[in-house]
Amino acid sequence: MRSIDYFDRGHDLDPQRTALIDVASGESFSFAESKAKTEQIAAALSRHGFANQQPLAIFAPNSAMAMILLLACWRANGQWIPVNTRNATDANAQYLDYVGCEWMIYDSSLAADVETIRALCPKLTHLICMDDLDEFIGDTTAADFVPPELDAFGNLEDLVGIIPTGGTTGPSKGAMITNLGWGTMIETSADAMSGRTVDPVALVSAPITHAAGPVALSTMSFGATQVILPGFDAEKVLGSIGTYRISHMYLPPTALYSLLASPDVDRTNTSSLRIFILVGSPVSPEKLRLAVDKFGPCLCQSYGQVECPMVITWLPPEIVAAAAAGDHPERLASCGKPSRSIKVELMDDDGNFVADGAPGEIVVRGPLVSKGYFGKPAETAEIRTHGWHHTGDVARRDADGFLYIVDRKKDMVVSGGFNVFTTEVEAAITELSEVRECAVIGIPDEKWGEAVHAIVVADGLDERTIIAHAKQKLGSVKAPKSVQFVAAIPRTAAGKMDKKSLRIEHWGENARMVN
Prior knowledge:
This protein is of the alpha/beta class. 32% of the residues lie in helices and 24% in strands. The protein has a nine-stranded mixed sheet, sandwiched between helices. Strands 4-3-5-6 form a four-stranded parallel sheet, with helices on one face. A four-stranded antiparallel sheet has the order 16-17-18-19. Helix 11 (285-295) packs across helix 12.
């Protein structure tokens, strides 16, 4: 089905149910009101010349209206171009120019950035401020909306969006996501998350422009109310859980750590939580165990990437809770088993599958895989060798089929001829309760080629204690040879640890950053 069909499925369950609650503005919209608004906006877009399958950028912080605009884009069968408010303005302009975007709807708080983008992106000729949306709509009504021409399959090859990759190794590439891939993701994730309460209420605090957008659509497909915060704030998230009886929530692991460190966590009633999904990067097993103690048996994980979104693997809350209680505790470090929608294998550099227990690159095959990179056939071919999509992530598989991500291929440190997976070192260091965050990289070393170096955010620890703990857990080869204490670890616009900037401090602008 098309992306908008999944919202309509939720609407049809109960049109009068509240669909959106905007905590900042106090506004709320039922499913019926939301649907009518998306039809009105889609009709206005068409009236002003927006064409079927044309790219449409949405540049706004989280809000109920930002969610409605996203749904309206899909209602008009547009290609969603997410614009991250945390990105550098030049990077956003570069991406918009790359995908040939002519239309953008933006929040007035970003007007200065839009002027800069306009100057850098001459193709961007249709700009609509959200404050002027009523004027843009004029006398257009929902009844004026004419659905685009559809085939019996739901236009499976039409693009839902051109979604930017992280861009940590260079400018973002645009992953072309089809209705087939997006629908596969929505159905797989909704199947895993639904049926756990008769009153599903989901919290949206991570950026809609990132994983929070598809997670919200997944939960809306089974009728969940979306409670929308303008951004992540630990105390406001905890307050919203209690106030709105949140049942479903998505956050990246770093936000989970902030919740665990908040003084409000022990004062918050979180008994309503049924699904607390962690997506975006590996989570510290010790922090995950603590989270189960604090929030109950609701913690779960999925693994995916922009090119194959969100649900390559799934680790359900039942498995996480059992592991936290001591039944296969090693599974707290797992990202789960392959979902029912994708074929997953581990492969060496020569295209051979590896045995259980051995590290190999995660390769996948199935409808979840994106169409490729927009305008980049060579880069697309590079990640599609041997008849598989190559994720760039390295994992091990145990005898029961659980996958354990050990690193990005580019993040692996080769020290004295030994491969050291940085996530394994990070997991060991974050077992120390005083450690709030840790990033591990390789730095130049005359003797070993590369030495393991840890960048740590912690209270009351010294370098010797951290190195000794890591040696006890991992041995001397994998333990860091040096530790740097910082107030905060730099992050990309997507909220991931920016290891590229951390490496530059030690390697300069050396493109290889290896010895």
